[in-house]
Amino acid sequence: MKIEINTPEKEIFSGNVSLVQLPGIDGLFEILDNHAPLVAALKKGKIKLVSNGNTLFFDIDGGIVEVLKNKVEVLAE
């Protein structure tokens, strides 16, 4: 699935991943390929991405995520 992580200042990451773990306001949750449509609020924490066997982490101070048609868009602070 494709993911984009953006802040008001710049794009942090864009690419294809097999797993996304996000810090939701009610706790951590994961998104896999072909996930159902979703909009959720995010709290301060780490975004975990798995891509081609590599694991990447990004710190955020909160934001929102939208999942639609195998695309994840994160608008982070």
Task: Identify the notable features of this structure and list them briefly.
77 residues, mainly beta, ATP Synthase, domain 1, 75% strand, globular
Topology summary:
Blueprint: E1 2-6, E2 11-16, E3 19-24, E4 27-32, E5 38-51, E6 54-68, E7 71-76
Parallel strand pairs: 1-7
Antiparallel strand pairs: 1-2, 3-4, 3-5, 5-6, 6-7
Write the CATH homologous superfamily. F0F1 ATP synthase delta/epsilon subunit, N-terminal
Choose one word for the global shape.
globular
Residue share in helix = under 10%
The radius of gyration over CA amounts to 11 Å
Compute the number of structural domains. Answer: 1
Return residue spans where pLDDT drops below 50 for at least 5 consecutive residues.
none
Secondary structure category: mainly beta
Number of extended strands: 7
CATH class: Mainly Beta
Oligomeric description of these chains: single chain
